[in-house]
């Protein structure tokens, strides 16, 4: 099944792996094409690829592998459902694909560059601050709890503030917070 929901039969192919390293096997969502690489570029691109396997190879054989297929994602599930450790930011930052829970502990206001909302419909990102400084978006793409007008404000300048943002494919909507 392709990301569009269309059923598709993918032709058989041979996956060639590099010896003595970790190989990442992915499937492109748009056409189902399977590819292998030692780089994590496509592996980390959850918007365009499904993870299939990570394979560790010896000089001549496979020494171990991890099955990373997740049926929920193949059926349109959220690309951020894995358990992840929160990350801490102290200065301006760009939210990465694997960062869903972010702790901000800056010594001044911090600017966050959020992912393009249209690339991650339904994605949730939680941000909290430990410091009494604002957290703002680099773009006017955040809709606060009490209005439908997008702006840059994410968190007020009060330690302990937090917000859960959800992409509606156009903006980041603050769905919960204090």
From TrEMBL:
Q: Which domain of life is it from?
A: Bacteria
Q: What is this protein called?
A: Uncharacterized protein
